């Protein structure tokens, strides 16, 4: 059996207590896999907290430039032997040499980039939290985040990902597309440039998550009817705040 988690979670930015979940999983005889793409290895090392597998979309922060595709699974040597056989030999899951070179290039600057992503994201989150059109900001580095204390214990860096809600939600998407001049309206994340997109809750439930009952209610407590997910890049944070102000005012 495998228990799968993602922390911070996309796009609601909920934080999972990896150590606590690992204990529950192992008591029941299950293994724990954690998608740590949003956190990156700079912020969190899930295996040290009890996870058995760690997954990263290398396309995002690890590459950092939005110009390569790749993924990684990390585990013990014994676990990796079976993964290598199934994924690489039987299914051909091998990254191309050029993509590997581009991602390896990006990893060289990952520690410095994550410092800048975190600093910029905090500045933008604080700006959004003070804006009258914004009803909620979800960023683990804010004291207002419901899981802020857990994030402080578990993350060495709060990353550059945040989500926020506005008064008119989906109706503001077209204005975001037309008014933003620095932030790009696009679905990817973790790049040097800032990217934003609207993720409506009903659309996500129909296409991806398929949550019902208590799970759906818990999701809506964070994300409501939908959020703008913002991947804060490496631009000047004052420029980013002015860009958002133009689209929100």
Question: How would you portray this structure in words?
Answer:
With 249 residues, the chain is an alpha/beta fold. Helices cover 42% and strands 18% of the residues. The chain contains ten helices and nine strands. The strands form two sheets. A five-stranded mixed beta sheet has the order 5-6-9-8-7. It has two domains: 2-107, Aspartate Aminotransferase, domain 2, CATH 3.40.640.10; 110-248, Aspartate Aminotransferase, domain 1 (Alpha-Beta Complex), CATH 3.90.1150.10.
Gist?
It is built from 10 helices and 9 strands.
How do the helices and strands line up, and which of them pair or pack?
Layout: E1 2-6, H1 18-27, E2 31-35, H2 40-43, E3 53-57, E4 71-74, H3 77-90, H4 97-107, H5 110-129, E5 134-138, H6 148-154, E6 161-166, H7 173-179, E7 184-185, E8 195-200, H8 201-209, H9 213-223, E9 226-231, H10 237-248
Parallel strand pairs: 1-2, 2-3, 7-8
Antiparallel strand pairs: 3-4, 5-6, 6-9, 8-9
